[in-house]
Structure formats: C-alpha cells, structure tokens
Backbone:
C-alpha cells in the first residue's frame, strides 16, 4: 500500500462513517511518518482503522470497503474496520499520533500510530510476521531499539516483560 492509497482509504472511510478523524493502527500506520518507506514494509493490502468519535462504525467501514468488497476488487487494497481493543498500546500513544490530512483526504484526518507504538503493539501481538516487521523497522532505522525501550514504562508490567524478552533475544 502506498501513502496515496491510505489517503484514499481515509477519505472513503471518513465519508462512510461520517467521521472527521480516523485512528490508523497496524503496519500501514507507518505511512503517517514515512510517506515513502521501504517496499518490504508496505506489502499489506489492508489498513486497520476505526472512527475516533465512534469506533462502533468500524463495522460499517469493514462491510463497505473491507476485504473482498467491490472496493477491494477495484483498487487492490481495503480498510479493515477494527476497534480500539485490537492493539495493546503504550499509555501515551495518543500524544504521538501523526496526522495525515490533506486535499486527498478531503479534510478527513487519519491519525496514524507513531512507528514506535506500531512496533510495540506488534511485539506484544507476538506473531512471527510481527517480529519480522519490527526487525525491518529497526533494520531500516525507522525505529530504534532505544525508542522501544523508552516506552516500556508505559506498558502494563506483564506486557513490558514480553517486549523486554524480545529485545534481549536480538543479536
């Protein structure tokens, strides 16, 4: 997915949900800070998002422009309507959101997780593909290990332990 694709999804999801702000979580949130990241970081066809004002409208987004919808078939990417509970995030994640709002979004704001918050949520999810994604973020210097370590105090203790364990296993 390219940045312009995410902007299209923000515009469409905003219109469908009648929302002016959408929270973008998941891997494609990195497009907020890095409009042109390395190709291996933007292979996903989906952007996980929900309306900031009413997360319950995520179902409507998913039904309308979600996976296997006519929208997905036409454009090759789609919105995955999710809820705030989808990702476990550091407590101050909202203060680090990165806004995408321009003429391509028709004024709808896509509030993207900061890459460090994406990395932490991926590490907590703990799937191999998530570990691989975080490794790529670090390899391409989009997130530093020190940045991940700096937000550990914002996590519940049991979540911080799993992230610390991953950090210690790294070469």
Residues:
């Amino acid at each position: 997915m390219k940045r312009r694709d995410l902007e299209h999804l923000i515009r469409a999801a905003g219109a469908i949900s009648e929302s002016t702000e959408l929270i973008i979580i998941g891997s494609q949130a990195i497009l907020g800070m890095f409009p042109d990241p390395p190709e291996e970081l933007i292979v996903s066809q989906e952007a996980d998002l929900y309306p900031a004002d009413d997360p319950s409208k995520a179902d409507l987004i998913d039904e309308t422009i979600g996976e296997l919808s006519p929208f997905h078939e036409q454009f090759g990417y789609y919105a995955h309507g999710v809820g705030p509970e989808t990702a476990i995030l550091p407590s101050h994640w909202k203060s680090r959101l990165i806004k995408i709002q321009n003429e391509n979004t028709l004024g709808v704001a896509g509030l993207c997780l900061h890459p460090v918050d994406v990395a932490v949520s991926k590490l907590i999810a703990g799937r191999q593909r998530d570990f691989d994604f975080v490794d790529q973020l670090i390899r391409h210097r989009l997130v530093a290990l020190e940045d991940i370590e700096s937000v550990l105090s914002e996590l519940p203790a049991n979540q911080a332990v799993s992230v610390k364990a991953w950090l210690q296993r790294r070469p």
